[in-house]
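Slide 14.
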Amino acid sequence: MAKRVCYIHIGPHKTGTSSIQWFLKQNRAELLKYGYFVPESGTNHGAHHAIARKLCGQELRSHEQSAAAEFARALDETPSEAVVISSEALEGLLRNRDYAKTLFARIGELSLEPKLVLFPRNQSQRINSSYSSAVKTFRRSEPFESFVQGATQGFVFRHTPLIELADAHNAELIARPFTRKAVARGVVSEFLQAIGLDPSEFRDTNVRRNEAAGPFTVDVARGVMRLINGTGKQLKWLQAMRCKTKLAAYLWEEGLADAGYCGLTTALARQIETELRPDNDAFAQRVWGRPWAEIFAADIGREFTPNDFEICRPDESTERRLRRAIREMTAIVEEILLDPELAVEALWNERSFRSGHRSLAEKSSELI
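Slide 15: predicted structure.
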């Protein structure tokens, strides 16, 4: 049986993934006419997280356990020559050897030819966006500069490991730079071109979703997290998701919702770019045959003015609103922590497993 191409969009986070996933969900029928099968996602925004996690061998909630089997059945029923899966969770999961091995083995069993679609982004901007997202989803609470230090010293924001991943599993790596110009053209159009489709054949490709949080939102979430962490409590995944939803609703109802967080100074951005330059250049030369600085000329060397309240303290009126918001949100979070349905003791509810930092095999070895 001839293998069908499977485009696996792996993100990363903060590169227009929500916009791409929303477009795929809304245009499943139209894409099918062109021979591209997009499986049902089971989510409102269209991400294939359950399919991706199950293919990696992760434990899922009971109602998600059949995701991979349903995907396999749907493949058998479609004559399409191409398949499209999108989950930015994979960018982290596939850096874990166990998960990567399991996913590519399963893809092979389904007679699919994997092609990884990736949108690299200049790291100073991506780290800035990732920090605000991590804080507003109650995953991180350290100061921005501490987050930057961990990001530049780790491997999550380095791209050459993904070349090694693709080589190891005989998968083509399709990398499209996520630049200011790409955003202006539209990330959905960029994605369609990456998988061999003409964007002009589709309507509503200029999708914008998931606006970044602002400095007030970041400071409230960070303040609440620090108070909760100070009691020795650690949020489960479901608890964190509920906290995120409640925070967004609270700020909206109080007229306090904002956007446009920036923790970067110009000097810090230059430091990030300098530290990651060797890895970036190695990736860019291999994938595009040009230096990283040439590809990201419009993004490198930008000037930044931070608005993080820990760097630039707000006025007295804003300080009062912050203290009140942190106090009231802390009470809301404490109620969330009392809900036993959100505190389920299961691997799928542990953030370290969901992020790919540990696999089931690693967990099992700890128990021996």
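Speaker note: The two ends are 42 Å apart (CA to CA).
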